[in-house]
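Protocol step 4 of 5: obtain the predicted structure for the target chain.
Materials: sequence only (see below). No template structures provided, no constraints applied. The aim of this step is simply to have a reference model before the mutagenesis design in step 5. Sequence pasted as it appears in the construct record:
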Amino acid sequence: VSMEVPLSYSIKSSGVQSGSPVFSGEMEMTMSGVTLNVPMYSDGKYTYMELMGSKIKQPVEDGNNDFQEMADTLLSMFSEDKFEGVVAVKNDDGTKSIDLPLDNETFQEAYSDLVDSMLGSLGEETTDLNLSMNVSDAKVSVVINKDGYIEKVDLKCDLKLTMSSEGESVDMNMNLDMSGEYKNTGSEVTVTAPSDLDEYEEVDYGF
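Step 4 output (structure tokens):
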């Protein structure tokens, strides 16, 4: 059984370097031919979203912000020694491209938060299972624009998740294909809060 679930985020952020980031954006997910669009906003204290006609807000706990995590995931690089011997290719439009293959250990070290999130998304029913993940054919591709800013990052890999208990095991194979494009990097960005934030009801569950 295979299923493809396209999921995309469009995010605008300001104040990231000051340590007081504000985000706005939209999540789009398509499943079984149905596309769901979810407007989202975060002021650092709450994340607000409008989901199927309901306006809800969720506290940002311990400084963790889903928007920040999404923005940082593809840029979860590692020490500079990982880039030793990697050649940047100059493109016709003046940009430069870098392709960096990753082995299983390097991938899980660089993207540990992503791996933990994927394992956690399996639900509480897997708590008593022994879970392990193996990554193959992993590669990060980076495009750097003429001003020296990262313009695009692609992450692709094959994942094999093994769930075992009482001597029996089940394997789940997944193909991960993530792409992020960074627009107007280095330019001033203004994020405007929705005018109806007082209409959002606080909830205590996550997405």
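Step 4 remarks: Helices lie at 66-73, 104-110, 112-120. DSSP finds three helices and eleven strands in the chain.
Proceed to step 5.
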